[in-house]
Amino acid sequence: MKIIGAGLAGCEAAWASAKKGLKVRLHEARPKWFSPAHRSENFAELVCSNSLKSDEEGHATALLKEEMRALGSIVMEAADATRVPAGKALAVDRDGFSGYITEKISSHPNIEIVREEVKQVASYESQATIIATGPLTSPALAESIASLFSSTYALTHSRTHALYFYDAIAPIIEADSLDMNVAFRGSRYDVGTNEDGDYLNCPFTKEEYDLFIDELLKAEKIMAHGLDDIKCFEGCMPVEVMAERHKDALRHGPMKPMGFADPRTGRRPYAIVQLRQDDLHATLFNMVGFQTRMTYKEQDRVLRLIPGLKEAKFARYGSMHRNTYINGPTFLNEGLELKDHPGIFLAGQITGVEGYLESAAIGLYIGSTCALTHPSTSSLDKLGTSLKACSCAHPLIPPTTAIGALINHIINSDPKHYIPMNCIWGIFPPLEAHPSTSKGPRKAGRKKLLLARARSDFQTWLH
Ligand SMILES: Cc1cc2nc3c(=O)[nH]c(=O)nc-3n(C[C@H](O)[C@H](O)[C@H](O)COP(=O)(O)OP(=O)(O)OC[C@H]3O[C@@H](n4cnc5c(N)ncnc54)[C@H](O)[C@@H]3O)c2cc1C
Q1: Which residues sit with their C-beta closer than 6 Å to ligand 1?
Q2: Which end of the chain has the least Cβ crowding within 10 Å, N or C?
Q3: Which one, of 157, 151, 141, 115, lies nearest residue 350 by Cα?
């Protein structure tokens, strides 16, 4: 098995396959080639936030974590081992997290590591190949992947990428540069792990908020050249784009003040910026929901208008990056294998899921099942007897489960309107209407029923 990319998805796929006894060759471009967002040589690097989202019962992402743990996820194992306080979210010490995974993967006897950029992927290779090179796939490989489908599909923007797409990342601040006479510790509605609160919070008066928004709107931004249609994924929307929509949009979004009292006044602030612990030693904090494409110079100027950040030292500025993914419903079959190129599988964000956890889950799924149990007949011929021997007709995961809902999104969405998707309840198939009323359950009960159905269907599938 050849796996290209030792990110979240590639590591999960490698770990799951190796545990099944397959020999895996894992190719990773770093440190010879770095994407614009990766910094370290470690595998499974978290390139922006250190949060793996909510771990609270009732959230779709908590269900996804539950399923991943049940499948023996290395990402969840590392996250549980390197967890830092973050209220109801599962946040990790980023270096500890990727260090843990690197150590485990590198020392597995069935995994051979090759530190090189793969520049070409060829149809009809002698072994199964999983491409897990992520949203920032190296340009040479992206070109090679695109050339595989150029004859069958007119790509949306160019032959090199199935779609161009942009994400923005949030700045990280050194904790001791914050003015703690203004900023304060606390968790929304006092729900958190630390008694005195998990977040550092910067409270605004109305005047401070108005000034901040005015300067944010005026600030110079980095625009992507050569593209007239930049699409921003809703969950990674830059703050200035939100502010352009409406002056109060941030106050109702990432800067919402609900659940806090400003210790200086005892009253709820007009708006708030939250900073979440980014490393185990609490020396770095990232600005929650503050993705931006302001120039570094403007970030220095405008973000210092945030109360408590006047003297802030930026460990990393926010920035915007390309996000490459293919049109899943057009190109991939239910095993996430390229329809026209049997034996080549895709995993992670490049399939059109969005998020660390979602990308990892797809890699885990492929490593656990698809690559082994659902190769098409033609790829079985080609993959040889060792792979055939591993194959044990595994049923497809039901779309009512969290992983199944993501797979269903990838292969069954409308190809004309395909967008990257997080794991949210909205992508799960609706509950059946009650026969006597022909109405579905109300919202509060709906999540509970979706959760119960998912758990039951997952257990049936697993066993
Ligand atoms: C700038 C940015 C910020 C993001 N922020 C968040 C966030 O805050 N929260 C969140 O949940 N998600 C975020 N995402 C989305 C996404 O979930 C992550 O990018 C996630 O890491 C994707 O996992 P992956 O395994 O698919 O790819 P990656 O984790 O990117 O792994 C791909 C690996 O492949 C390697 N590689 C690339 N090309 C080659 C090649 N030719 N040969 C060999 N190796 C290669 C790379 O070096 C990398 O190690 C962000 C994405 C970007 C681009």
Answers
A1: 4-10, 27-30, 35, 37-38, 47-49, 117-118, 132-138, 141, 167, 169, 321, 323, 348-350, 355-356, 359
A2: C
A3: 141
Please give the distance, rounded to the nearest whole angstrom, from the Cα atom of residue 29 to the centre of ligand 1.
12
The pair of structure tokens assigned to 250 is 């941030």
Distance CA 146, CA 381 (A): 25
User: Tokens 């990232």, residue?
Assistant: 286
3-state secondary structure of 305: helix
Name the maximum alpha-carbon separation found in the chain: 72
Kindly report, residue by residue over 99-147, the tens digit of the pLDDT. 999 999 999 999 999 999 999 987 666 688 999 999 999 989 988 888 8
User: How far away, in angstroms, is 45 Cα from ligand 1 center?
Assistant: 8
Element (H, E) at 167: strand 166-169
Q: What is the pLDDT of residues 376-405, one digit of tens each?
A: 433 444 443 333 333 344 678 999 999 999
Q: How far apart are CA 375 and CA 359, in angstroms?
A: 21
Cα dihedral 418, 423, 424, 427 in deg (nearest 10): 50
Report the nearest-CA residue for atom 5 of ligand 1.
48
Which one-letter amino acid corresponds to residue 93?
D
Judge contact between 111 and 14, C-beta under 8 A: yes
How far from 445 is each of 401, 431, 449, 450, CA to CA, in Å? Answer: 17, 11, 6, 9
What is the spatial distance between Cα 331 and Cα 152, in angstroms, rounded to a whole number? Answer: 9
Residue type at 18 in one-letter notation: A
What are the helix (H) ranges across 340-442? Answer: 356-365, 371-373, 377-383, 385-390, 402-412
Q: Which of 39, 61, 60 is CA-nearest to residue 48?
A: 39
d(CA 71, CA 107): 20
Token pair in block for residue 125: 């290779």
Task: Classify residue 268 by its DSSP letter.
Answer: -
Contacts of 226 (CB under 8 A, 6+ apart): none
Domains of the chain: 2-165+323-427 (3.50.50.60), 168-322 (2.40.30)
